[in-house]
Design brief:
It is a single chain. The protein is α/β, with parallel strands linked by helices. The protein has seven helices and twelve strands. Strands 1, 2, 5, 6, 7, 8, 11 and 12 form an eight-stranded mixed beta sheet that branches. Strands 3-4 form a two-stranded antiparallel ribbon. It has a two-stranded parallel sheet with strand order 9-10. 46% of the residues are buried.
């Protein structure tokens, strides 16, 4: 069966402490070098980055995005032969929200990943989030928005939009964070907990440890690079079996079709 690698959590140059050389073309070149079929765009909530994505990328036939112009792609990594580049990298719209809010007498700091099937869906979600906080100051905006409310807004935007809790074991900024998180999915997301079907374990996570928690038995676990530069793409990624499409990734993460597994 067909399989492919996907890195589903990265950032743009509009996020703090990221390479200023990050562009869609740079990501496409490095994605191809790293053997990644699908790379998340990161930071679609940032107006400047979303405008750049819309200018550089066009939809493909599978619900993903590709470069509109692949000519001269070798100039992005000039020390490698240009003949190595075929412009095969596909993109999936993603963003990360830093939710900092108070619940149960405690300050919560939870990072969540958002995914959207189209530019139109991303823009509708951005319009809702812009009413809550500043989307311009950082590619990973900090919003005083409860994670459950963020999930609700995401689900209302489009049937194919979804939310994945990010790096769930990070002490300060995650769902299960010991310093500012929660003790269960249900505690964090309440009546919408069943809408969480995938979680990102994070770079420092031990896969064998993750499976010892029975609360995650129904959850698809993924791990990504959280790259802040093109060179860091794919340092962790996910192997999917099935079609390289938005619907295929969505179905695999929901457990409806295909499989995911860690890839180093």
């Amino acid at each position: 069966m067909e399989s492919f690698l996907a890195d589903l959590h990265i950032h743009s140059r509009h996020s703090r402490a990221t390479s200023k050389g990050l562009t869609p073309r740079c990501l496409a070149a490095w994605g191809e070098i790293k053997g990644l079929c699908v790379v998340a765009t990161g930071d679609f909530t940032h107006p400047g980055w979303l405008a750049e994505l819309k200018d550089a990328l066009v939809p493909d036939e599978a619900g993903l995005l590709r470069l509109a112009d692949t000519s001269g792609l070798g100039q992005e990594i000039p020390w490698l032969p240009e003949t190595r580049f075929a412009g095969t990298t596909r993109f999936l719209l993603s963003a990360e929200i830093s939710s900092i809010y108070k619940r149960g007498g405690k300050v919560r700091k939870v990072h969540n990943l958002l995914y959207a099937p189209t530019f139109e869906a991303a823009e509708r979600l951005n319009a809702k989030l812009a009413k809550i906080g500043n989307l311009v100051s950082d590619g990973r905006p900090i919003l005083g928005l409860d994670s459950r409310h963020l999930l609700e807004l995401t689900l209302e935007t489009d049937p194919l939009c979804f939310l994945v809790p990010a790096h769930i074991w990070t002490p300060w900024f995650s769902l299960f964070g010991s310093k500012s998180g929660f003790d269960s999915i249900e505690e964090c997301f309440g009546s919408l907990a069943r809408e969480i079907f995938a979680m990102e374990t994070g770079l420092s996570s031990d896969p064998d440890m993750n499976w010892t928690l029975s609360a995650l038995d129904r959850i698809r676990l993924i791990s990504n690079s959280d790259a802040h530069s093109g060179e860091k793409l794919g340092r962790e990624s996910n192997r999917f079996t099935g079609p390289a499409s938005y619907q295929g990734i969505f179905d695999a993460l929901r457990g409806k079709a295909g499989e995911t597994a860690f890839a180093g």
